[in-house]
């Protein structure tokens, strides 16, 4: 009503302007604030929203009714979805639905993420594939039950362009053939860990889906025959061959002559591939953008280096684990000037001089992985910082010689830095963190095992790095409640936090943690000072908490677990090993947390066998993975074990 | 000394006396009637006959090679028949007629063999053609004897079976012995006629009574030959590169090709598939057909002259095998013509009784298929089956839109055991909250049945859990039907909810 009185009111904006504003909001939390403003704004939200990631499946019918223009639906967070649910969703949406057309929401859907939806079988998939005529992208990764029948059902989605079938363990060549014949427009396909796949399936795929641009056959037991088939794909740009044990240099010779559009190749961890195989690849593809050869080379040979001189467009190279000489760096920097990322993790022979030579010409480097290159010092870091001003990610885990001087250079020049891994760098201290905190874009900071930092250092981060969303403080014994206070004041976006073995942290510290509303992942092993009060604060405050690891938090009493059972409705994984939880509390946690998928429950000293049995009964319909104390195998009733097994739950005995 | 060797010795002794057939007839008639010798025959020489059938089917040896042994088997079969006839009801006069006819034939054959043996000594440098001729003659004779014998036996089918099985058990003990002995005697008989005898090693194989009881030996033999030649046709055509004009092209008419018989008796009009059978038949029409000249294979007589190679053309216009076709490929034999014509231009009238899908126009093809039918597990959506996965994938690569079919028995029941039930039940449910919950509970209870947890289901239906879960003061956490916490453990949940409600306050 105000809008009529005051023309300056935001509500006077027209609908299309509001839509434009809405579309500029990138973060989900901002959009949430937007739709909470008023009804009109919410209406804009419902009309404009294209993507939906559902956390709680019970809201799905309402949400689908509310958002009629969805193009992308992500159900990966609700793996309980099964054929019955799909059938319901497609017949009527929501109670007392007004929409006369059944399954209306599915009409415009282009992308569907069904990752880990192990309950979904071929009948449900077939219904979905038929109901979504525009479907272009489907993700069924980690659906362990996804087999040939499911693939056949999915193959009726003829418009499919992208398909992710990682770890569909039941899938065989027959299923792939179904997909290949049915979805001939396929451009992107990932088959990682589909262990039943053989050369026959790959060969057929390459003959039927000639438009393939992206193909990932990592971890498969395919041979050079497959590479022969793959070489015929004219449009292929990305080829993933990671850890294919049966592929060798002969197969890469086929790639040399084929795949004219190849831009990216990953042969990392291929036991049979040597530098001569890579020479074939490099010789045949001068326009290669990305070469991933981690852990398959013992040495960056001069012959390969000689060929690499021609790769003028190369942007990414990873040669983890290889021996590399200083002159090699010289050659790389002289020829591969457009290099953006270099991975030298665990490489032997990486020296300050080598790094200096590298960065002297490769000034566009944005990602640099120097994990376990023990001999580099502040000099190298300074050179990097000075040359590569657009550095985004730096990994220097276990480079002990880095001190505050290096971090000072980083804080001065690399202001775009978003991710830095300083795990196990003993040279990092509070002063160093102060310099580093000048990188205000920092979003991921790993300080595990940096025992020289204290609350003071953390407070600099808390004051300046407001965008941080992942922080690892594993075994930072100098960190206490005050540091967490500073953190909770500034880093409101924190999503992932590791406080394990930070012995000083008490209930007060967890109280500050409870202020982090975005926190979804909290690891706090062996915090001996915390009690139920602290856990309750976390449970009440961190509404998005999905993964909680509180192994060895022995002092936490039942009141904390009750709170957890009541408030942490989004919890998906929990580790309660070595906790003093009682039977009753365990039953409540397991029974009441309706999103719980994985639980580790070993050495629960205050629990009886009956208590564990009851707790398992309480959650058996939804739990997917549980770790139990080994002797319980013979104490629990066979009935509950059978139920869990029948439900597809994996039990690990410890 | 073994009986057979003794017989052979006798035969060799008798040879110098001369080749008069009448003399021999009387002498040997006496010998056949000797009861002790018949008994020996029946036990000893039975296995070679079995072996003959088996080797014929499996190895597809030339018929003559094996059939040369047959005269010795005839006696055994006859005796068997005689034994059998004692047990069963039969027409003695008809049987006697048959047997005497057989006897005559055997003696004729014996005469012929004597003749061959006698000639062997005298005409060492003779061309092989005569030997071949004689061999063929013997073959033809033997064929007719077998047919006659088997048709005679056919009337006594059941009794023959019994006696045979009795005979085989006794044979089993001395089978190996008989097998070792037999080749030596056969070798002597055939000496000069045949350099080797492949059947000898097969003798000790266990006898198969079915082969003998089959009363249509003629047809069976034909199949063996057809199958054999069928493979020949395929093999030969690939490699053959005859220049056009270097061979004579014959073209049979459709009626001729499809006719069941190709050789007809000029006297009575009876049809035969083979000329040899016709010649055997002709001998019944008078003595003039019994001369070696009349019994010899007529085509081979002219083989001494240089003959033009004959090739055949398919009468079907437009066919690649038709002589008017641009890339004409001739067919090698009449049998090739027949099989080709039936396969390519005729209806497939033979349907496999096992799979009821595969059809054939040549019965031999059906039999070949039936051997493997059911073993093909790789199935295409078009219905074609393959014994190997790579063959199926090759087929799919070739044909647009074909996909591998997934056999329906491979459907795995979802581990939860509810998904299918849920699909069925849920389909008609209104999305009214309460009614849905009940339907969901139905589904759940069905799954509970599997688990056998009855009390849980009771708790599930209790109104208490219903209220607390859905309406009991939890407006900030509405629990729509999808909430999976409304599972079989709702009773527990309701309690815990109540509890936490208190603790929250």
UniProtKB/TrEMBL annotation, chain A:
Residues 302-411, 490-597 form the F-box/LRR-repeat protein 15-like leucin rich repeat domain. GO terms for cellular component: SCF ubiquitin ligase complex. GO terms for biological process: SCF-dependent proteasomal ubiquitin-dependent protein catabolic process. InterPro entries: FBXL15_LRR (IPR057207), Leu-rich_rpt (IPR001611), Leu-rich_rpt_Cys-con_subtyp (IPR006553), LRR_dom_sf (IPR032675). It comes from the Eukaryota. Transmembrane segments: none annotated. This is F-box/LRR-repeat protein 15-like leucin rich repeat domain-containing protein. It comes from Gossypium tomentosum.
TrEMBL record, chain B:
PROSITE patterns: ZINC_FINGER_C2H2_1, ZINC_FINGER_C2H2_2. Residues 263-290 form the C2H2-type domain. GO terms for molecular function: zinc ion binding. Residues 1-34, 189-221 are annotated as: Disordered. It is found in: Nucleus. Pfam families: zf-C2H2_STOP2_3rd, zf-C2H2_STOP2_C. Residues 1-16 have a biased composition (Basic and acidic residues). InterPro entries: STOP1/2 (IPR044300), zf-C2H2_STOP1/2_C (IPR058196), Znf-C2H2_STOP1/2_3rd (IPR059161), Znf_C2H2_sf (IPR036236), Znf_C2H2_type (IPR013087). Keywords: Metal-binding, Nucleus, Repeat, Transcription, Transcription regulation, Zinc, Zinc-finger. Residues 19-34, 189-199, 206-221 have a biased composition (Polar residues). GO terms for biological process: response to acidic pH; response to aluminum ion. It comes from the Eukaryota. This is C2H2-type domain-containing protein. It comes from Gossypium tomentosum.
